[in-house]
Amino acid sequence: MGDLRSLPVPDGLEGERADAALSRLFGLSRGRAAEVIAAGDMLLDGREAAKSDRLHAGAWLEVTLPPPPAAPAPVPEAVPGMGILYEDDDIVVVDKPIGVAAHPTTGWTGPTILGGLLGAGHTIATSGAAERQGIVHRLDANTTGAMVVAKSEIAYSRLKRAFKERRIDKRYQALVQGHPDPFRGTVDAPIDRHPAGDGRFAVVAGGKPSVTHYDTAEAFRAASLLDIDLETGRTHQIRVHMSAIRHPIVGDLAYGADPTLAARLGMTHQWLHAARLGFEHPTRGEWVQFESPYPDDLARALEIVSDES
């Protein structure tokens, strides 16, 4: 059964197309929003809406949202290149390779960290949804680096709370095009789904508050290596914010990177690495910190851009 939502159209959606507004309001893809409207499940002041209808602020909106598609259960599997930085009875800190998702999702058919851990015989906490058991934070499939997974139930609950309360030290490194000005700064800009409804995210008025701090570690002729500290953890946050200040991450073609530079450096994905992860151990209480070395492709690209400078 669908989930019925009733509310007045917000002022910020005045004049928006019905499908775009539905996408923004409820985080649906543009295609999914169009399906809801085509099924007659979006009413404006009591009448069925068409996807091209323009909304008026204050009109009464009734939407029956479809239940989210069930994600597949994790399947134990071998994940080549997945390393273990640390493990005890409560946590396992993974060195995540390229092309691996954190957990199964609808539409993802590639390997997952969860499947890799189960396939290697690791015990994982069973808290949370079945397809996300033990997962307390995520990295994009094409982002590498340090990621912690909970093994015990108490570790799961305490780490989830620590991430929610921003008591985690997450440090990334990104190779971005050009030279940010100033060399050290903060990007404070709200993020939500891209209006195109194509899976990307964007800086959007009324989006979720998002804050990224960056500092230039090294400047090259064509690019800069940045140290990045996240205050918030939105999907694609670093990629969106770097693109928004016109210094997209090298190799991140989805967010405006130069394909010629990416090809010259041998990058087929964004040059973004979760280099350091620190937090209070969930049962021992002491501060623990883990570092992930660059994978070969990132190290090679960094060497090339450095030699060209």
From TrEMBL:
Molecular-function GO term, any one: RNA binding
Pseudouridine synthase RsuA/RluA-like domain residues: 90-244
GO biological process: enzyme-directed rRNA pseudouridine synthesis
Pfam families documented for this protein: PseudoU_synth_2
Listed EC numbers: 5.4.99.-
TM region positions: none
Residues at the active site: D140
PROSITE patterns attached to this UniProt entry: PSI_RLU
Catalytic activity: a uridine in RNA = a pseudouridine in RNA
Enzyme class: isomerase
Family: Belongs to the pseudouridine synthase RluA family.
Family annotation (PANTHER family): MITOCHONDRIAL RNA PSEUDOURIDINE SYNTHASE, RIBOSOMAL LARGE SUBUNIT PSEUDOURIDINE SYNTHASE D
Role description: Responsible for synthesis of pseudouridine from uracil.
Protein name stated in the entry: Pseudouridine synthase
